[in-house]
Design goal:
The protein is an alpha/beta fold. The chain contains nine helices and ten strands. Bound molecules: zinc ion. The site of zinc ion has 5 residues, from loops.
Length: 251
């Protein structure tokens, strides 16, 4: 299958209308489309049937987790078991202590189940870890997860080495234009572990995030790391190619 060399590694494509998705198709990138819950997972899968540049991820976002999420998780497992050949990535999943500390105990229960599911499917995890970087990393290091994409990484700099040695990726968000902590991560992290993302259509301060922003992200990485745009483009493309090989998408 033909594919693009650059991917938006974390985008909520399910939130866009059919017309908006048609415009995104013109960008010349692949999109790893994460989901928030069972119903958005269905929409993500529909979009991936329609477009071969859409790589579907199913999951339950930590912000969507409640006491009842175990039922929703079981429904997702049924869906995944029916579509094993098409679902290679689980996300958006993870833990959040920064914005949703009140449901942390439930989040932890569901996230552990997703890790087990990921091990079983040999899937990649697309991870949200705001305010819970260390907890997430500790759980994954203990697991047999082959690789993970830690989205919008603004965690401790000292964890980056562990992430890299474990073969995990971080995806860099357009917020890198203004968010100091994210800029520091780009300065310190190895280019070999970087992907680019939009987290669209999330709004960050005055920025309405959109998949087209991944090109700007590469410009900012080049600026911060004192490299040419081409060097960053080639490195990010190589990282994405490696990821595709890992999940058998280049066959
Ligand atoms: Zn997200």
């Amino acid at each position: 299958m033909e594919y693009h060399r650059i991917a938006d590694a974390h985008c909520h494509l399910h939130e866009f209308s059919d017309d908006e998705v048609k415009d995104i198709a013109l960008l010349g990138i692949d999109v790893i489309a994460v989901s928030d819950d069972y119903y958005s997972s269905l929409r993500t899968l529909t979009l991936s049937e329609r477009y071969n540049w859409v790589i579907p991820a199913v999951g339950i976002h930590p912000w969507s987790i409640t006491l009842d999420s175990i039922n929703e998780f079981n429904e997702l497992v049924e869906l995944v078991n029916k579509l094993k050949h098409r679902i290679k990535i689980l996300g958006e999943i993870g833990l959040d202590k920064k914005f949703k500390s009140e449901t942390f105990a439930y989040q932890l229960q569901i996230f552990k189940l997703f890790i087990e599911l990921g091990e079983e499917l040999k899937a990649i995890l697309n991870i949200h870890a705001a305010g819970a970087w260390k907890e997430v990393l500790d759980l994954m290091i203990k697991s047999d997860i082959s690789t993970a994409i830690i989205h919008w990484y603004t965690g401790p700099i000292e964890l980056l080495k562990d992430l890299e040695s474990r073969g995990f990726y971080i995806s860099i968000n357009p917020a890198v234009s203004i968010q100091e902590k994210h800029r520091e991560v780009v300065a310190k992290a190895s280019l070999d572990m970087m992907l680019v993302e939009s987290d669209a259509p999330y709004r960050y301060r005055d920025m309405m995030l959109h998949p087209r922003n991944v090109y700007d992200v590469m410009k900012y990485i080049a600026q911060i790391k004192n490299l040419s745009y081409e060097e960053v483009y080639e490195a990010v493309a190589k990282n994405y190619e490696k990821l595709r090989n890992l999940i058998g998408l280049n066959m």
